[in-house]
Amino acid sequence: MGKVAVTTAVVGAAAACAVAALVVRHRMRSSGRCARAAALLKELEERCATPLGKLRQVADAMMVEMHAGLASEGGSKLKMLISYVDKLPNGDETGLFYALDLGGTNFRVLRVQLGGKEQHVVKKEPKEVSIPPHLMVGGSDELFDFIASALAEFVASEGEDFHIPVGRQRELGFTFSFPVRQTSIASGTLIKWTKGFNIESTVNDTIGTLAGARYYDNDVIVGVILGTGTNAAYVERANAIPKWHGLLPKSGEMVINMEWGNFRSSHLPMTDYDQALDTESLNPGEQIFEKLISGMYLGEILRKVLLRLANEAALFGDSVPPKLETPFILRTPVMSAMHHDNSPDLKVVGTKLKELLGIPNTSLKTRKVVVQACDIIAKRGARLAAAGIVGILKKIGRDSAAKDGGDTPRTVVAIDGGLYEHYNIFSECLRSTVKEMLGEEASASVVIKLANDGSSIGAALLAASHSQYLDVEES
Ligand code: BGC
C-alpha cells in the first residue's frame, strides 16, 4: 500500500514539474520548430536551385542527348522517335476527317469538317468515352475492342452537316499518348505504358499539339505537353537523323517525338524527396524529367516535403496528420490553388489543409511555409521545362538572333496540357525563364503560346495532310 502511495506522490510531483516545464518548453519548442522548419525549407531551396548556369547545363545536356538519340536506336535515354509525319497541315486542307485520342482515363472521338484557308474548321463534333478501369490494366485486345466499337457507334451517328465525297473512305488520325516506335505513318509498336496504364500489348499527343497549332500558324516548330505527363516534339531536318535509313521525305523534314519525359542528367537538381518518389513509383529509374516537372508529380513532391516538415519540425502540431501520409493525396491542382492564394490570411491554404488533410486551425506562419514550399517546387519544374525548350531551340539553331543583321525567323513553341494552362505561376515562370536564357534579342522572335486542345484535332489534321487521296489529286 505504502509503496503505491509513495509512487503516486512522486508521479504527482513529477506531473506538476512537467506542466511547468511544458510551458517553458512550449515557448522554446515553438521557436525551435520555426527554426527547424526554416532550415528544412532553406535546404529544399538550395537543393532545388536552378541558377542560370545550371539551366544552361541542362539545356546543353538535352541537346547532346537529342543528337545521341537521333544517331542510333537506343543511343540515349531520349528515344527521339521518328514519327513518319513529314507533312504538317498548312490550313489548306478540306474534307471530313476523324480523330481518336487515347491518353488518360477517357478517350475522345472527334469528327471535323475542314473548309480550307478561308473557313478552317467548319464544324466539329467531339464525344468523350470513359474507359472502364479493368480495361486499363487488362489485355490490349479487350481495350482496343472496346475503343473500336465506341468508334463504330460514333461514326454511325454522323449527321448530315458532315460530308464525305462519294467513293471515299473516312480517314482517321489516332492520338496515342504513350511512347510508340513507329514503323510507318499508320503503324507502330508501343514501347511502354506510362501514367498509371499497365497493359501488356500511333500519332502521339505531342505531335497532335504540334500539328494542331501549325494548322493556324506556319511558324510553329515545337510542340510541348505539360499536363499529367510531359513530352516534346519538333520538326527536324530529315538529313540530320543518322538513324533514318529510309528515303528522304519530299518535304526534307520529319517530326520527332522526343519522349523527353525520360530525359535525365547529372545536372538535374534532384532531392531526397525526388529519389524517394522515383523509388516508390510504378516505373523507378524512368521518366526522371517527367517526375520533376509534370502535373502527376508536383503535388506529390509537395506532400513529401510537408510530411517531413510535420515529422521533423512539427509544422502541423505535435502529431503528424495521418492523411498527409497517403501517397498522391495532394494533387497538383490543389497545390496550384494554394500557391495562387492572394488573401492576406492565406484563407485558401487554410481551407485546403483542413478539407483535404484534416488539419484545422493553421497559423499564418504555417500557411506561409506551405506556400513557400509550393513556390520552390513549381518554379524548379517550370525552369527545368524552360531549359528543355531552350535545348531544343539550340539543337535546331533557333536560340539566337540572325548575326549579319538579317531577319531572324519567327519561332513558335506551342504548349498544351492542364499544368501549363491552369497553373499560372508555373507558365509565367516558364516563359520568363526562356527569355532569361535566350536574352532580349533572341527571345524577341520566339513565341510561346498555349495550344489549347490541339492534340485531338491535330490527329484529324494529320489524317488530312497525309490523306491517301492527296497523291491522287496532285497527280
Ligand atoms: C508519355 C508521352 C506523352 C506525355 C504527355 C508521357 O508520360 O510517355 O508519350 O506524350 O506523357 O501526355
From TrEMBL:
Record carries keyword Membrane: no
Coiled-coil annotated residue ranges, if any: none
Pathway note: Carbohydrate metabolism; hexose metabolism; Carbohydrate degradation; glycolysis; D-glyceraldehyde 3-phosphate and glycerone phosphate from D-glucose: step 1/4
GO MF term list: ATP binding; D-glucose binding; fructokinase activity; glucokinase activity
Domain Hexokinase C-terminal, chain residue ranges per copy: 222-464
Example of a GO cellular component annotation carried by this entry: cytosol
Entry EC number(s): 2.7.1.-
InterPro entries in the record: ATPase_NBD, Hexokinase, Hexokinase_C, Hexokinase_N
Source organism, top-level taxon: Eukaryota
Recorded family membership: Belongs to the hexokinase family.
Protein name (Swiss-Prot/TrEMBL): Phosphotransferase
Species the sequence originates in: Musa balbisiana (Banana)
